[in-house]
Specification:
- This protein is of the alpha/beta class.
- The chain is about 50% helix and about 10% strand.
- Strands 3-2-1-4-5 form a five-stranded mixed beta sheet.
- It catalyses: Endonucleolytic cleavage to 5'-phosphomonoester.
- Keywords: Cytoplasm, Endonuclease, Hydrolase, Manganese, Metal-binding, Nuclease.
């Protein structure tokens, strides 16, 4: 007697599934529903293979550092250079050598749902995670580039484990730890990609909290960037305490 399609689906898409003999049985099953499930399963396998290949490609810089004797490699990235309001946030992430988190990529290339999922997985698997937050007032005082560097240094200090090598997205910082600056590093290194995701989710959550205090600018949706809603809020209500006063068009409302 043939198994119900619902039962086949549950078995086929169980993450622990590994039964070649069962697959052969399904290939001989002429029911259209079963064949559709097999097509979907095949697409899933191809997708997983591509993610695996991408992950291995993004391990290149970590593997080079491991081969040179480094045990703890930290990826660093920041988010929030462009917004008109809110802090700039940086993250530093040290992943274990034998770690695998498929789907890591530049946080901007991921959906909010995927970022949230990876945020939790990174937190659970990382050797250490550090966060650096630099306020709008400090951004106005020292400029956004220096504030981004400062946030990275704070994230590095916040790590519970001192790294022996740094991979940094398109920047260098003052430190005695050997470092590599990688252009578009959040799409080329798993450690930087992980830092990108941690920083992005952390900052987005901060801006949602700020929205509860300053509800006129849409911070829960735009994270402080200059969207239409944000600009309309500025025009109608002026600036709030977390606006960056040196940024246009904020400074016209001073």
């Amino acid at each position: 007697m043939k198994q119900p399609i619902k039962t086949i689906k549950e078995r086929l898409f169980d993450p622990t599934f590994n039964d070649p003999a069962f697959l052969q049985e399904l290939l001989a099953d002429e029911r259209a529903g079963v064949q559709k499930l097999l097509q979907r399963y095949e697409k899933q396998l191809v997708k997983q293979q591509l993610l695996q290949e991408k992950y291995e490609e993004m391990m290149r810089f970590e593997n080079e550092a491991f081969q040179q004797g480094a045990r703890f490699i930290a990826g660093l990235d920041e988010v929030g250079r462009g917004p008109l309001a809110g802090p700039v946030v940086s993250a530093a992430v040290i992943l274990p050598k034998e770690c695998q988190i498929l789907g890591l990529n530049d946080s901007k290339q991921l959906s909010a749902k995927k970022r949230e999922e990876l945020f939790i997985e990174i937190q659970n698997k990382a050797v250490a995670v550090g966060i650096g937050v630099v306020s709008p007032e400090e951004i106005d005082r020292i400029n956004i580039y220096q504030a981004s560097r400062l946030a990275m240094k704070e994230a590095l200090i916040d790590l519970a484990v001192k790294p022996e090598h740094l991979l940094i997205d398109a920047m260098t910082i003052e430190t005695d730890i050997p470092q590599q600056s990688l252009i578009k590093g959040d799409a080329r290194s798993i450690s930087i990609a992980a830092a990108s995701i941690i920083a992005k989710v952390y900052r987005d959550n901060l801006m949602k909290d700020f929205h509860d205090v300053y509800p006129f600018y849409g911070f829960d949706q735009n994270a402080g960037y200059g969207t239409k809603v944000h600009l309309e809020g500025l025009a109608a209500h002026g600036i709030c305490p977390i606006h960056r006063k040196t940024f246009a068009p904020v400074k016209q409302y001073l």
